[in-house]
Write a structure and sequence with these properties.
This protein folds into three domains: about 70 residues, lambda repressor-like DNA-binding domains (434 Repressor (Amino-terminal Domain)); about 170 residues, Endonuclease, Chain A (2-Layer Sandwich), CATH 3.30.870; about 50 residues, no CATH class. About 40% of the residues lie in helices and about 15% in strands. The protein is built from twelve helices and ten strands. The strands form two sheets. The chain has a six-stranded mixed beta sheet with strand order 3-2-1-4-5-6, with helices on both faces. Strands 7-8-9-10 form a four-stranded antiparallel beta sheet.
Amino acid sequence: MIGAFGRQLKLLRTRAGMERAELGRLVGYSADTIASYEQGRRVPQPRFIERADEVLGAGGLLVAMKGEVGRARYPAFFRDMAQLEAEAVELCAYDTVVINGLLQTEEYMRAVLAMRRPLLDEATIELRVSARLDRQETFNRWPAPLLSLVMEESVLRKPLGGKAVLRGQLEHLLLVGRRRNVEIQVMPLDREDNAGIDGPFTVVRRKGGEQVVYAEVQGRSTLVTENDETALAAAAEGAMKTAENATSGAGLAWCKSSYSGAEGGQCVEVAAAPHAVLVRDSKDSPGPVLSLGPKAWVEFVKRAARG
């Protein structure tokens, strides 16, 4: 579809007697970008398609292809899920391998995609990075969907792409977690009970109450719509959130750490929860909470003592 769109774009441009640079100037894109669209190396953005259709006098021909062009940005196994994601009123996900695509930074995306086997060529990586970033527009649409994400602690500890990439990714999670419609929870490694033992999945809730469950492994995906099975997945997701509420800090006694600054600097508070020690910024008590297992807490204290 991307190739067909590119050929049609080139045909319309040459029929109008325009060079790429001229078309680019009229629609606000460079000549190189126009070339990449015509050659099927990049997926055009919806606003480009609409503007090009108008400038070239295509009479809606290019706009009619916009939906299929948008779907073609994604690998075949994810295309139906991308459509569901865009229509969701609530998304609940459990991730065990990597950070959920909706939460990934561009640097993290590139690192993960570069590790795929068989190897992806550079054009495909660029295509998927662009598509994944566009998916994150779901945070900006209104009404805003509710996003509830639970991930294994191990996901946050893997330095995929290097420590600098991981640091940027963790900082991004803290920022996204401040949104009113986003809830991010972590399943500690030392948890003795885990309702998500069968692996990662996403529950999509659509307007009207319909639920769809999406699961993906090794480039293959499954969409489940049967009521009984979606109800079971939703129950598992609810059980995990209930278990993690014990590490959210609600109802616990918080104490200012002895390592907090005496002059109102970067102060932290700690609280003891089952199987974990919780840490938060004392000046932002409603904000994100860091959950540390016993071993991680000991290491945290040692590092704090060393300054």
